[in-house]
Amino acid sequence: MPMQVPLLDLKLQYEHIREEIQKEINEVLDSQSFILGPKVEALEQKVASYLHVRQAIGCSSGTDALLLSLMAIGISAGDLVITTPYTFFATTGSVSRLGATPVFVDIDPSTYTIAPDLIEKKILGMKKDDRKRLRAIIPVHLYGQCVDMKSILKIARRYRLAVIEDAAQALGASSYGRKAGSMGDLGCFSFFPSKNLGGYGEGGMVAAKSKTLAEKIRMLRVHGSKKRYHHQIIGYNARMDAIQGAVLMVKFQYLDAWNEARRICAERYRELFLKSELAENEGTKKGFITLPSVAKGNYHIYHQFIIRAKKRNQLKKFLNENGIGCEIYYPIPLHLQECYKDLGYQKGAFPESEKAARETLALPIYPELCSEQQEYVVGKIREYYSP
Ligand SMILES: *Cc1c(COP(=O)(O)O)cnc(C)c1O
Question: Which of 3, 36, 165, 362 is deepest in the core (most CB within 10 A)?
């Protein structure tokens, strides 16, 4: 049997923290109190001080974090929201759920994140009526690396747009020392089990700089009420479970060390690829592989380690056959999704997003990944290109 290198291995992580986790979960079981409560509040305070924001509000998923944020800033039917087509569906699904419309802007091919200069170009090219309907920008810190937020915030100020960061993949990432999710008006996080900080079920969080927005999100999370059975606004049920709060409080202590370990894995991949002569450094075109590049000032936490690869689809198949987990994030950019047919985008509308969808591949990366496994992965990739 060949060596097995899964894309992600949560069982190894659990082995190290099993006792602490079970003790915390047992406390919740003994309390028989399962929704919100002291563990969730403790987590909210931890995350808020970690990000240096006034408040953090625990909720039921990253998707709900986005939805609550958009509701809190008053996004509704007819509004337009700028974002990237190269992201997980939740980024725009939440916009569309409110009757608003995503306006797509292509990515920077080196970082895979939305290109600020193209945002400004898009806004300037809009009809006056459309420009009036423009309300917000959602930058997505994809794969664990921050968007160029300085430029985003400048554009947002110039055109009076709200900024909601989709930091679902970036808890702990930073740009010039400022943490992902703490730079815009609101920051959204996901604790989906496979994220860098993953719960044991669904979970999410909103980081808020303003007390007013934070209070509104707290109300929206419980059917728009502050006092039970008194509903001032229309919200819904987006609460966090106590068990998730308990699990995440344990795991939060390790987050920085785990992110550091991912960075060490990423460096090891880089060295192995360069030594193998499959890749040259930082985006050169000659090699078979293009390594991920890190923008200036960024602390990348490698939620994913993404390469561009020649003959990508066959490479994926070859690696899978050899016991190596790898995945395509994301095979179809959002402007070409069936549910967005009515928006009228054609193939070729966002060439860099479409190219990334055709060429990129996520390789295994997680804190427990060992050097033998990484050598095996890179060795197999070399074998693929030089049979
Ligand atoms: C995971 C993710 C979400 C959604 O989070 P859920 O907790 O799965 O709802 C949103 N945006 C991005 C970029 C994500 O990766």
Answer: 165
Single out the residue in 252, 278, 309 at which a domain terminates: 252
Helix (H, G, I), strand (E, B) or coil at 231: strand
Atom of ligand 1 nearest to the CA of 195: 1
Rounded distance between C-alpha atoms, residue 287 and residue 71, angstroms: 46
Does residue 220 share a domain with residue 299? Answer: no
Give average pLDDT by consecutive 10-residue segment, the chain, 387 residues.
Answer: 91 97 98 97 98 98 98 98 98 98 98 98 97 98 98 98 98 98 98 98 98 98 93 96 98 98 98 88 69 97 97 98 97 98 97 98 98 97 89
Pair 146, 30 in one domain: yes
Which residue of 89, 112, 169, 244 sits with most ligand 1 atoms within 8 Å of its CB, as the best mutation to test the pocket?
A: 169
Distance 62 CA to ligand 1 centre (A): 5
Please state, in angstroms and as integers, the Cα–Cα distance from residue 296 to each residue in 42, 142, 243, 300, 345, following that order.
Answer: 34, 16, 38, 10, 32
Q: Please name the residue whose Cα sits nearest to atom 6 of ligand 1.
A: 62
**CA 305 to the chain's CA centroid:** 13
Full-prediction pTM beyond 0.85?
A: yes
